[in-house]
Write a structure and sequence with these properties.
The structure is a single chain. It is built from twelve helices and 20 strands. Strands 11-8-7-6-5-2-1-12 form an eight-stranded parallel β-sheet. It is globular. The chain binds alpha-D-galactopyranose (GLA). Alpha-D-galactopyranose (GLA) binds next to loops.
Length: 412
């Protein structure tokens, strides 16, 4: 993998050129037609890695329907790396015939028949991260193949590619343009992990979302194996990025680890404790506040009630999917306490009160400290309870590693 960390500034002229070429290929600047709210779905990587198969994806599709997750908004079933069988003499990618004997087209049909959408994965180099054939130099053919298969979403990785931003902008631009030329609406997800600051150029080249960090791990806090990050470490790296998100263009802090419970093939590091229920609930809260794409990655077929409750709380999901499309900013950092603030449509506001400390805390939040009007109707979203009108100062108990999620509506 090609993952040395470096900081760089993307040359403006290059981003502008990429934007021009995307427009020439028919893309709207900002890709605003697709993904008006952050995409939601399920991805195969974290829990299943190499065990992805058509049987598994079909079962997940059935489970999305049966559990009510589809109804809750989870729509894209995404096949991550290791689906590939190879590249044929005709130059086209084909899936592993053992794990995908009916082919991707049949799988897309199955998924579409259930009101769901299909995602697939490739890489902007000659190989993917798991050393499968990549799409570099085959962009037109691969985009056409994906479109013919009925694919609705492409995650495009960046292993084995050069480190400079110019090449990344060019390679992502080439695939974005190829996708547009197919005429099929395919959500395009940039996955270069952040070093080339994709928030500055990915929307301009025609992507709807871009990863902002290295891969998430099934842990609350810590950096594992050089670059894999816990939930809190990822959260810290979103500070300063809120201004880049909006309808059709989203920061992607990587997948949900909710409910993995230490069982992720690559994602649950041996010897590290998996997050607690409270910590998983905090990931969901913070991801929704940050208007993040919500891709569950656990085994939906066997999830417990707590996991189901976390993934399917309609009021929490509504914060993520709010049509205004604003990403929360960290409005207060006061030792272990943080206040995250997300403006919602119609003058509502979502707040997250995160306690990173080892013990429960009582926190007093003056509305004026976060530039809010003096009185609000407050609803506790996880408790599903109205707290009445709060004037001046809110006093909240916040457990260790908990995120209290509140929805404020104007008090008339
Ligand atoms: C990279 C990506 C992951 C996953 C793997 C697949 O690490 O960041 O999300 O797609 O590749 O090999």
């Amino acid at each position: 993998m090609n993952r040395r960390e470096f900081v760089t500034t993307v040359p403006g002229a290059l981003a502008a050129e990429a934007a021009r070429s995307a427009r020439a290929a028919g893309a709207e600047p900002g890709g605003s037609i697709l993904a008006p709210t952050p995409p939601m779905g399920w991805m195969s990587w974290n829990q299943f890695g190499p065990k992805v198969s058509e049987a598994l994806v079909r079962e997940m599709a059935d489970t999305l329907v049966a559990t009510g997750m589809r109804q809750a908004g989870y729509r894209y079933l995404c096949i991550d790396d290791l689906w590939q069988g190879g590249r044929g003499r005709d130059g086209r990618l084909y899936p592993d015939p053992k794990r995908f004997p009916s082919g991707i087209r049949a799988l897309a049909d199955y998924v579409h028949a259930r009101g769901l959408a299909l995602g697939i994965y490739s890489d902007a180099a000659d190989r993917t991260c798991a050393e499968q054939p990549g799409s570099l130099g085959h962009e037109e053919t691969d985009a056409r193949t994906f479109a013919e298969w009925g694919v609705d979403y492409l995650k495009y990785d960046y292993c084995f590619a050069p480190e400079d931003p110019e090449t990344a902008i060019r390679r992502y631009g080439a695939m974005a343009s190829a996708l547009r030329r197919t005429g099929r609406a395919i959500v395009f997800s940039v996955c270069e992990w952040g070093p080339r600051e994709p928030w500055l150029w990915a929307a301009k080249v025609g992507a709807q979302l871009w990863r902002t960090t290295w891969d998430v791990r099934d842990i609350w806090e810590g950096e594992y194996n050089d670059s894999h990050l816990g939930i809190l470490d990822i959260v810290d790296r979103q500070v300063g990025l809120a201004g880049y998100a909006g309808p059709g263009h989203w920061n992607d802090p990587d997948m949900l680890v909710v409910g993995l419970r230490g069982k992720g093939v690559y994602t649950s590091p041996k010897g590290w404790p998996p997050p607690t229920d409270t910590e998983y609930r905090s990931q969901m809260s913070l991801w929704c506040l940050m208007a993040s794409p919500l891709h569950a990655t656990n085994d939906l077929r066997t999830m417990d009630e707590v996991t189901r409750g976390i993934l399917m709380n309609a009021e929490v999901i509504a914060v993520d999917q709010d049509p205004l499309g604003r990403q929360a900013v960290r409005a207060i950092k006061d030792r272990a306490m943080e206040v995250w603030k997300k403006p919602l449509a119609e003058g509502h506001v979502a707040l997250g009160l995160l306690n990173r400390g080892p013990g429960a805390a009582e926190y007093s939040l003056k509305w004026s400290d976060i530039a809010l009007a003096p009185a609000w109707k407050v609803r506790d979203l996880w408790a599903g309870r109205d707290l009445g009108v709060v004037r001046g100062t809110l006093v909240a108990q916040v457990g260790s590693h908990e995120t209290r999620m509140l929805r404020l509506s104007p008090a008339s």
